[in-house]
Design goal:
Blueprint (H helix, E strand, L loop, with lengths): L14 E6 L6 H5 L6 E3 L8 H13 L2 E6 L7 H12 L4 E5 L2 E4 L2 E4 L2 H16 L3 E2 L3 H10 L1
Parallel strand pairs: 1-2, 1-3, 3-4, 4-7
Antiparallel strand pairs: 5-6
Helix pairs in contact: 3-4
């Protein structure tokens, strides 16, 4: 159901939780092949209470908590998780938003107002002591070199 997770006692590789926009967004597919660390992808075909519990568990011990927000977002819970983690786990939390997303050939874009709001979220995240990175290349570089 979930991708394999390393034995945390081994200490060999760091682990990043890949939170943020779901809804057929491909941002995870874009970064996973580039990652030199382990990852936990919470996206599953059938979401169950066990899946939610596993996600909470992994967030508690992952080395990094990445939240990538795209215009494919339909709910706001990922933003709530991001802000919560930036308060509780600022040294582990990373925020990135993408201006556009391509879902099955349909290009989605944030409005100017939404971008303004996301920039305010980014400033809040930074003031909490967490990281705000501007694109997926910065995210991959940070994760692979920290």
């Amino acid at each position: 159901m979930f991708n394999d997770i390393i034995d945390r006692a081994s200490g060999k590789k760091k682990l990043v939780f890949l939170g943020g926009t779901a809804n057929n967004s491909t941002w995870r597919d874009q970064i996973i092949p580039k990652l030199e660390i382990d990852y936990f992808n919470p996206i599953v075909k059938d979401w169950t209470p066990d899946c939610k519990q596993k996600e909470i568990e992994v967030r508690s011990y992952a080395d990094y908590l990445l939240y990538v927000i795209t215009p494919a977002m339909t709910g706001v819970y990922s933003i709530a998780e991001l802000v919560d983690d930036s308060n509780k786990r600022p040294n582990k939390t990373i925020f990135c938003y993408l201006d556009t997303d391509n879902i099955n050939g349909n290009v989605l874009k944030f409005t100017e107002h939404q971008i303004s709001s996301l920039n305010s979220v980014g400033q809040m995240i930074q003031s909490n002591g967490a990281k705000w990175l501007k694109n997926l290349d910065e995210v991959v570089n940070y994760l692979n070199n920290t």
